[in-house]
Amino acid sequence: MTDTPAKPVLLTGASGALGRMLARSLGALGWKLVLTDIAPFPDPLPDGATFTRADLQDGVAILRLAEGCGTIVHMGGVSVERPFEEVIGPNIRGLYHVYEAARREKARMIFASSNHSIGFYERTESIGADTQFLPDGYYGLSKAYGELMGRMYWFKHGVESVNIRIGSATPEPVNARMLASWMSYPDLARLIERCVLTPKVGCSVAWGVSANARMTWWRDDARDALGWAPQDSADPFTAQLAGVVSGDPVEERYMGGAYCSIGYSRDQPAPRGLFGETDD
């Protein structure tokens, strides 16, 4: 197995925090990168990389950018909870354009999914990667849709994909929830590397989280098949962050945290299950 992909890698969302980090990390490996974002790229370009400003909703532009690429690392789109009308264009229509480009080029898709696709599971639970979606907002809903689109393109067109359900990818954890959900930048970069280089991935799901002792929520993903294991941990931050909680019972109950509270309008706490059963 080579350490360098045989074909260029298209990286969408390259101007965002995670995109910039991946451009640096993958560029340092000598990979040939095709970078794109709707916003200008603020950093020096890695050696051999190109950058083109493009809107994900411009299907022709995305098709042209993907020409000759063997993998698309799709980090683009709305990356936080926003009103539906702001999410639907980049995250639904834009994703379709990216998948169509992958289909035409017979490229692999690495999709930045999110823990918010399953955000309304309670923190007392432990769920596998094949558990049904419980999105906590329009952003999480778009990520669930993105994973379903990947399944359709796999079964209908043979497009391989890895859906990375990113927890909290930040330079450092900042609250008690992140003692479970945090993912370091290096762990994410190493996971992306394995997603690109592993010979066959089918249509897979990987939990994007570091080796945190408090991470009891998520299990049974494709990490072994990908040859990836996290090397970093939020555990050194436990003493300073264990008491950093919001005081919001909705936020603290569910895996999705604060996103679960945005626009929450139930008069009573949400039932434990889909059919209205409670803890009583």
TL;DR of this structure?
It is globular, with a radius of gyration of 18 Å. The chain is built from 10 helices and 11 strands. It has helices at residues 17-28, 59-66, 84-105, 138-157, 178-181, 185-197, 223-226, 238-241, 249-253, 258-261; strands at residues 9-12, 33-37, 50-53, 71-74, 108-114, 127-128, 161-166, 168-169, 182-183, 203-208, 218-219.
Describe this structure in words.
This protein has 280 residues and is α/β, with parallel strands linked by helices. The protein has a single domain, classed as 3-Layer(aba) Sandwich (Rossmann fold). It has helices at 17-28, 59-66, 84-105, 138-157, 178-181, 185-197, 223-226, 238-241, 249-253, 258-261, and strands spanning 9-12, 33-37, 50-53, 71-74, 108-114, 127-128, 161-166, 168-169, 182-183, 203-208, 218-219. It has a seven-stranded parallel beta sheet with strand order 3-2-1-4-5-7-10, with helices on both faces. β8 (168-169), α5 (178-181) and β9 form a beta-alpha-beta unit. α2 (59-66) packs parallel to α3 (84-105). The longest helix is centred in the middle third of the chain and has 22 residues, at 84-105.
